[in-house]
Amino acid sequence: MKSRICEMLGCEFPLFAFSHCRDVVAAVSKAGGFGVLGAVGHTPESLEIELTWIDEQVGDKPYGVDLIVPTSLADREGALTPEELEARVPQAHRRHVEYILAEHGIDTAGLWDHRVPAGFGDNLRESGASAQLDVALQHPIRAVVNALGAPPAFMVEKARAKGIAVGALTGSREHALKNVEAGVDFLVVSGTEAGGHCGEISTLVVVPEVIETLRQNGHDVPVLAAGGIVTGRQMAACMMMGAAGAWTGSVWLTTAEAETLPSIKEKMLSANSRQTVRSKSRTGKYTRQLRSPWTDAWQGSEAPEPLPMPLQGLVSGPALNRIDKLAEAGHQGAKQLATYWVGQGVGLMNDSLSTRAVVQNFMEDFAAAYEQMQAVMEG
Q1: Using an 8 Å Cβ cutoff, are 239 and 367 in contact?
Q2: What is the domain extent for residue 154?
Q3: 15 & 94 share domain
Q4: Are 213 and 237 found together in one domain?
Q5: Across the 379 residues of the chain, what is the mean pLDDT of every consecutive 10-residue run?
Q6: At a CB cut-off of 8 Å and minimum separation 6, what does 183 contact?
Q7: In the chain, which ranges are continuous DSSP H helix?
Q8: What's the structural domain count of the chain?
Q9: Per the domain annotation, does 316 fall within a domain?
């Protein structure tokens, strides 16, 4: 395809697939798209293993890496000890979590026994992300993307020195200008329909708004549309608005290769587009996820305000891990509480297909939409 982003990054079809699963990343790149591995959960050592495996699978096909270095973060410098971090979690938050679990028949004994590990949250700071980036840049990646806020200077400088393109997720025109000023080569403009961290403006509004803002300010930076895109028709529509391609995430969660827990996958395949919610209950920043009694319990007037990132993870992590394990074992209360990041496009995700089949469906659906628009123009 004649797309600027394809020319920039060397892919055949401008379908970008963000995933924490290396199998999905490799399969998308091999099928002609562009896989992007979410690296935030990895140590430099484990990231090296994952990227080496991807290299062996994809050959000379392009792929990239996604990091998270948020602009705002509690203990941004990592100066607090594990004990000091734990002390910043109010008892009211722990009691609230215990109440939620107990209401659904889940034993809370030992829930807080696991101590905060040394270096907790390091991957969200410059030190940890820089170490991840150093590993990634030893591999033939074509792009590195920052998922929260403008990419820090070290990311841009290190990538630029290696000839690697830098991207950033963007939720508004104001953020777009800040990201361009930071030196990005492309923008991922994400609407509120997206799973995970997202803003509050619709994809249909924010994508053309950012494109027009860039034009008015003399910036010629390609834009990938994101947020609720799970079909080739949606991708084609966004490209008709001026996007150079589509950035997708949720659609890969129900693929055969995805590492998504079976209990979560089952909920996604049966969910409709109204069964997601933006909530701070998981990370301390707004993320879109499956609505469940867990997310509802953090919305009520009696609920404590979620803590800033990464402290909320100290509250939600132990509980959600226990919920997931019990849900997999068939515990009904846990299955009700279980939640995971996913966008509003989940209502169109009704079958568990192979990753290659999803890419193929995107291509065929895109071509059909293009032909339909040609027929309208010729008619």
Answers
A1: no
A2: 4-74+121-252
A3: no
A4: yes
A5: 92 97 98 95 92 97 87 50 82 97 97 74 62 93 90 91 96 95 96 93 98 97 98 97 98 97 97 96 94 95 91 94 97 97 97 97 97 87
A6: 151, 156, 160, 166
A7: 4-9, 22-30, 44-58, 82-87, 91-103, 126-136, 153-161, 173-181, 203-216, 232-240, 262-270, 293-297, 311-328, 332-337, 355-378
A8: 2
A9: yes
In this structure, the answer to whether residues 245 and 308 fall within a common structural domain is no
d(CA 181, CA 187): 12
Residue 62 sits in a domain of what CATH number? Answer: 3.20.20.70
Place of tokens 């809370």: 108
Copy the structure tokens of residue 88. Answer: 């910043």
3-state secondary structure (DSSP) of residue 310 = coil
* The pLDDT of residue 87: 86
Q: By three-state DSSP, how is residue 313 classified?
A: helix
**Amino acid at residue number 277:** V
**Does residue 365 form part of some domain?**
no
Q: What's the pLDDT at 72?
A: 45
The amino acid occupying position 236 is A
Taking the C-alpha atoms of residue 124 and residue 85, their distance in angstroms, rounded to an integer, is 15
User: How much is the pLDDT for 125?
Assistant: 57
- Give yes or no for a contact between 182 and 155, defined as CB atoms under 8 angstroms apart: no
Using CA atoms, how far residue 78 sits from 112, 211, 289, in Å, is 22, 37, 28
Rg (CA), the chain: 21
